[in-house]
Design goal:
The chain is globular. It is α+β, with helices and mostly antiparallel strands. The protein has four helices and six strands; from the N terminus they run E-E-H-H-E-E-E-H-E-H. The protein has a six-stranded mixed β-sheet with strand order 1-2-3-4-5-6, sandwiched between helices. Helices cover about 25% and strands about 25% of the residues. The longest helix is centred in the N-terminal third of the chain and has 11 residues. The N and C termini lie far apart (about 40 Å).
Length: about 140
């Protein structure tokens, strides 16, 4: 088994896909997040199947999640990062980002990217910044 687990007090962050509570992740993303409202169960399952996933657990209850879309060589996109309300304010989001950015298979990339509406300071603490050359970036949206 090739997965990473980190423990802090009663909390564990794990990349073991078998531990993920898919209904929990789907419910949060589709019903409680601003960025994935209405996302279908099938899309959530496909996104998880094709990403490196990080579950945050209190004992055996999942309380947070993040995923990284990557080629494991040059690029990583951090997505769907959340800690449920009841556990915010305990440093778990910062710890999750530290575990993700220090993961052995996610080192020496030319670029990491993410999108956030309101958590810029959290991401700055682990080295993210605004796009240096936004005029070079393009997107194709399907809203």
């Amino acid at each position: 088994v090739n997965f990473v687990e980190r423990q802090r007090d009663e909390f564990v962050i794990s990349t073991d896909q078998q531990r993920l509570d898919i209904p929990f992740i789907y419910d949060f993303l589709s019903n409680s997040s601003y960025w994935a409202t209405g996302r279908s169960r099938e899309v959530v399952e496909s996104s998880i199947a094709n990403s490196l996933n990080f579950g945050v657990f209190r004992r055996n209850e999942q309380i947070g999640f993040a995923r990284v879309v990557t080629d494991y060589a040059t690029f990583a996109w951090l997505a769907d990062v959340f800690i449920i309300d009841a556990y915010r304010g305990r440093g778990l989001g910062s710890w999750l980002l530290e575990v993700i950015t220090s993961h052995p298979r996610l080192q020496d990339f030319r670029r990491w990217v993410l999108a956030t509406r309101d958590a810029h300071e959290l991401y700055r603490r682990v080295g993210f910044s605004e796009l240096r050359e936004p005029d070079r970036w393009m997107e194709r949206r399907n809203d």
